[in-house]
Structures are given as C-alpha cells and as structure tokens.
Amino acid sequence: MAPKFKDKKDKKEVKKPRHLEDWTNSLDNVLKRTPKASGPKNATTTDEKVKVKTKVNEQKRPANLENWTKSIDNVLKDPEGIQAFRKFLQEAEVNKRELTKELDFWEECENYCNEYQKMEDHAAHIFDTYLQIDAELEVGVGDAADRVEEELDKMKKQKNKEIFAEAQKKIKEKLEECQYKNFLDHLKKVYNL
To answer: Which residues are within 8 A (CB) of 115 and not within 5 positions of it... i.e. 6 or more apart?
Structure first.
C-alpha cells in the first residue's frame, strides 16, 4: 500500500536522468509522426492478419476445388484441375519433367482419343453426305463408295482410338497412387480444407 501524503511538501519529486528524458522525448516525437495502421493492408493484430489471409485464400479458391478432392478423375476432367495439378507437379520436381511427363502422356492420349473420334465422325459425315446411295449431295463414285464404307466399318471395329487405353489407365493409376495424394495434401494445406 502506497503511503498517503498530507500535502505537496511531503511528496518527493523523482527526476529522470537527463539521457532518459531526451530518449523519451525523441520516442514520443517519432510515435506522433508515424501514421497509424489501418485496413487489411496494414493488419497488425493476429485476428486482422488471419482475416486477411482467409480472405485471400477464399478469393483464389478454384471453383471446382471440392470436386478435385473427391477423385483424380474430377481433376483430369477439368482443364483448371489439370493446370493446378501440373503446377503442383512442376513445383515438386527436382529434375525437369520428372513428374509432369506422366501427366503429359495422359493428356496426349486423351487428345488422341478425342481427335480420333472427331476424325471418325467426320469420315462418317462425309460418307453420309456425299457417298451413300441417295445421299443429299451424292457425287456418284460407284464402287469407290463401297470400299469407303468397308473402311469405315473396319475403322469402327478396330477401335484404333483405344490403342493407348491400357497404358493411359496405368499412368492414371500411378498418378493417383503417388502424386494425387500429395496434391490433396497440398490443397488441404493451402485452402484449409
């Protein structure tokens, strides 16, 4: 308990040493001239920093993020998913294309299947439009139309578009077992899932 003084005469005034007084005045002047932090750019408290960080993560959160976490198929069906997966693999690579080559192979196979299907469909369209008997724009090439029809049937039976199917499936399984799990961990960490 502090002693009570009856009047001002009983109080002893304690003077600060001169060098402390100068230092205190200098500090006060600096603090007066420093602008106060305001808004998310200058967040100073932990709560403000967390809010800003959360807001940034929410803004950059991919639209199909939830789907990507369900299966590798969802990642591979989505161009943005493939792009994010590729970026993740590139950042994890020690040697150039060490990890991305498998994703590149999968994509090339997928593109081949899509292009082959387009070519097959286009060939059927040409036949139906110009070569088939009683076609709308029949050009009349005789037996050549029969040979084209035979080739189209062979093309459908051979299923050349599936030439890489087994290899593509194995690569997808490899990606799923190894890199997709790491990708999921990365997504969970970055987006607080």
So the answer is: none
pLDDT at 51: 54
Predicted TM-score (pTM) of the model is 0.61
CA distance 107 to 137: 38
- Measured CA to CA in angstroms, residue 55 lies from 45, 49, 59, 63, 191 at distances of 15, 10, 6, 15, 11
CATH code, domain with 149 = 1.10.167
- DSSP letter string, 61-75: --TTHHHHTT-HHHH
What number of other Cβ atoms are within 10 A of residue 162's Cβ?
Answer: 13
Q: What pLDDT, in 10s, does the model give residues 151-177? A: 998 888 887 888 899 999 999 999 999
Cα distance between residue 86 and residue 47, in whole Å: 34
* Per-residue pLDDT tens over the stretch 58-70: 547 898 999 999 9
Number of domains in the chain: 1
